[in-house]
Amino acid sequence: MYKSCTAIVLRVTKYNDKSNIVDLYTDAGRISIAVKTGGSRIKSSMRMLFRPLSILRIEMAIRPHSAIHTIREATTAIPLSDLPYNPYKQATAFFLAEFLSRVTDGGSEDRLMFDYIVQSIMWFDNCSKGYANFHLVFLLRISQLLGLKPDTGEYRKGMVFDMRNAVFTSSLPSHGDYLTPDETTALRQLMRMNYDNMWLFRMNREQRNDCLDAILRYYSLHITDMSHLKSIEVLKELFD
């Protein structure tokens, strides 16, 4: 049986000398396909096509009772003009693709999630300046689709954010997984960011990385497969 779908590239893993496994996210959930690498010219074209966060049109042969399907054809569904060639955007794409590979479900259909990711990629590709906070906005906004968005309406000055229970509280939790009052105030400010106004939130690299660490720490308490992200170190060196 054959199937066609639009897919976002998350990860490419070498399977053997002749093929790679490509993890994709579609509106029907996660899928994996086997892609033959062939000669050097084919390898080069495959690297270009299967870059992290590329949006492709995939035709594949469904293999019953197998987690890995066979590709028949892959073409660009939405051309990206800047992201594949901009080193800052590339590093951000590697990080977000790795993050998505940890938080997206292999078997559940989620059109809202898929559309959010596609629209975010297109916005990022078209943005020419003021996008240093893009990854923070992406992580915070997608928390709602993952059912993990904190309810900032409960916030009052001086409260702390209990990351285990995802609530704001006036008393210190008995555990250590919480943000201080100053950090909690910063979180509330971050939750006001969106792609259109994020350039107004001025942060240096250290402040931005502190925010990133706090967000990922929160995710790690609620998502089991959130061990160390390999691409984060490169991302942390970007954007003064």
TrEMBL record:
Keywords: DNA damage, DNA recombination, DNA repair. It comes from Candidatus Avibacteroides avistercoris. This is DNA repair protein RecO C-terminal domain-containing protein. It holds the Pfam family RecO_C. One of its GO terms (cellular component) is bacterial nucleoid. GO terms for biological process: DNA recombination; double-strand break repair. Residues 3-76 form the DNA replication/recombination mediator RecO N-terminal domain. Gene3D superfamilies: Nucleic acid-binding proteins.
